[in-house]
Amino acid sequence: MTVMEILEWAAVLLVLFGSIISVISAFGLIKLPDVYTRSHAATKSSTLAVLACLLGAFIYFWSHDGYVSIRLILGIIFVFITAPVAGHLICRAAYRSRVPLARNSGEDELKPLLFDGDIATSTVAAITNEDTEKDDK
Amino acid sequence: MKEMILLLALTFFMIAIALLLYRVIVGPSMPDRAIALDTIGVNLISAIAIVSIVLSTKAFLEAILILGILAFIGTIAFSKYIERGVIVDRNGDS
């Protein structure tokens, strides 16, 4: 085996690793209880999967064709920067639009700072909690 | 052998997209659907990279960049709509 073949095999195995991580992330998105825990599965592990896959593609083109693709590097940097920003914005929008936490989660320290003295908040939360309990039964 | 492994990885990504589609359809709140759509876009990027390796062409690499930008802007628009109720607010004092 020459060095180029070893590099190609490394690229292919990196792509396979990324795909397995992606399936694990999708299972987390199915199984976890509420939005805030699901966003962990959606942003962190999915970003790792995409970075591994794009890095594998970059190494494959580099070793197989001798072609250094600037566009793949730009795609890696762009995904690496924007995926945490998108996850943070969605979580912020979810909290401010009063999506309830899971029932077995701990103390909510942000709630008295954001929604204190807001009567509609407590009633909305109570109604949504009742709805989820009905769904659970 | 390499091509078999690449097609297996492509199958894994398609399984992941199908599972995420369940969350898009069922998801109890709107931010769930937005998160799942963002993750579908990110998985499509890597699926395009694998297809570009299998077909041994470099023509799809622009599509990776453009799909990344479109998924990010779509997620920003969804989150702003969920939080404020509008996407473009005319009076910029908020």
Label this structure with key terms:
heterodimer; A: 137 residues; mainly alpha; 2 domains; B: mainly alpha; flat
Structural overview:
The complex is a heterodimer of chains A (137) and B (94). Chain A contains 5 helices and no strands. Chain A has 137 residues and is mostly helical. Chain A starts with a helix and ends with a helix. Helix content of chain A is 80%, strand content 0%. The model of chain A has no long low-confidence stretch (mean pLDDT 82). Chain B is mostly helical. Chain B has one domain (2-84). Chain B contains 3 helices and no strands. The longest helix of chain B has 25 residues, at 2-26. Chains A and B meet through helix 1, helix 2 and helix 3 of A and helix 1, helix 2 and helix 3 of B.
Runs of chain A in which pLDDT lies below 50 for 5 or more consecutive residues are none
Mean pLDDT of chain B comes to 87
Instruction: Please indicate the count of domains of chain B.
Output: 1
Head-to-tail CA distance between termini of chain B: 57 Å
Beginning-to-end CA distance, first to last residue of chain A = 61 Å
Query: Total domains of chain A, how many?
Result: 2
Give the quaternary arrangement of the chains. Answer: heterodimer
Task: Name the biggest interface.
Answer: A-B, 56 and 50 residues
Principal-axis shape of chain A: elongated
Distinct helical segment count of chain A: 5
Largest β-sheet summary of chain B: none
Estimated structural class of chain B: mainly alpha
- Secondary-structure-based class of chain A equals mainly alpha
The run of helices and strands of chain B is HHH
SSE pattern of chain A, N- to C-terminal: HHHHH
The overall strand count of chain B is 0
**Which whole number gives the mean pLDDT of chain A?**
82
Write down the Rg of chain A: 21 Å
Helix content of chain B: over 70%
